[in-house]
Amino acid sequence: MLPEGNGTAVHIENLVKRFGDFTAVDKVTLDVKRGEIFGFLGPNGAGKSTTIRILCGLLAPTSGRAVVGGFDVSARPEDVKRSIGYMSQKFSLYDDLSVKENIEFFAGVYGVPPEKFPERLAFVLKMGDLEDKQDVLTRLLSGGWKQRLALGCAILHEPPILFLDEPTSGVDPIARRSFWELIYQLSAAGHTIFVTTHYMDEAEYCHRLALMHGGRTIALGSPAELKNSLGDGHLLNLETSDLLESLTLILHGDGIQDVAVFGGGLHIKVDDAESATRWIRATLERQGVAIHTLEAITPSMEDVFVSLIEQEERAAAA
Fold first, then answer.
1. I need a surface site. Which of 104, 138, 146, 152 has the fewest CB within 10 A?
2. How far apart are CA 296 and CA 303, in angstroms?
3. Cα(37)–Cα(9) distance, rounded to whole angstroms?
């Protein structure tokens, strides 16, 4: 067990999970502090969900060590399960039960004492703004309301640590923002939140992040720290009448550090924003490429992630 009072909620050391010849989690090492909102960011297949399932005691690691809430997940998985809340992207609700009946069912699963149930029911309904929906069949709820109900069911037993695996997948942007407001409330109340996501904008909501690629953590830190890891230089956003021609023309120009396709345009890392802007404008106009947008921007988490993955792939190729 981890020593009490050391402020660590989750400790992972050289964690590995293999399925036959495939390594899903590759020597992951990190600590998560109590009360922290910690994010696992990465594309599908990066190893995020597999790591979460190990930490929840649902999968045994191949090697390495994981300690959650003071319990070793290999030696005491049942103690881990009792001390955490878990919400998967499929929400794990029963569509043929009402909102209140789902809450009653999960209260039984989590061993909430009968005398405490009315208090916990009232808390979940109020937290999720579900008070006027408690008799509605769950299958009639929108994705956003199901999401709130699933979160409420996961915290009925007041777990100190909450694992959310792709919790906003498939819900609209407004519901996603509302859900993150609930996560902040839980963090402020002392819960440790461990969340996986492939939405880059959601990374901004986390206190710290691990960026995962190919089963490994390729970067670890706060959103600001990860943005600063891009190093010296400035970022420009370019949108033109011909994306591929623009990419070809400016890719190897003086002062151009890197160019990446971003949506319908290009994000260009440059040494000096002012001189690069003049050169890009002149170069494209000479070739008859119309410029719709050319401006300096602040790097996003997607810029960070794309840059780090390209570094990893260049290193692997070398």
1. 104
2. 13
3. 11
The token pair at 194 is 């461990």
Q: Do the bridges between strand 37-41 and strand 22-33 make them parallel or antiparallel, or are there none, so unpaired? A: unpaired
Return d(Cα 32, Cα 261) in angstroms, integer.
33
Alpha carbon 142 to chain centroid, angstroms: 22
- Fold entry, domain 8-227: Rossmann fold (3.40.50)
Burial class (CB in 10 A: 0-12, 13-18, 19+), 254: exposed
Contact yes or no for 39/210 (Cβ under 8 A): yes
Question: What angle separates helix 143-154 from helix 173-188, to the nearest 10 degrees?
Answer: 20
Helix segments in 210-300, DSSP class H: 223-228, 243-250, 273-286
pTM for this entry: 0.83
Tell me the C-alpha to C-alpha distance, in Å, between residue 17 and each of 107, 116, 183: 32, 39, 29
The structural domains of the chain, with segments of one domain joined by +, span: 8-227, 231-298
Alpha carbon dihedral 135, 137, 138, 140, in 10-degree steps, equals -120
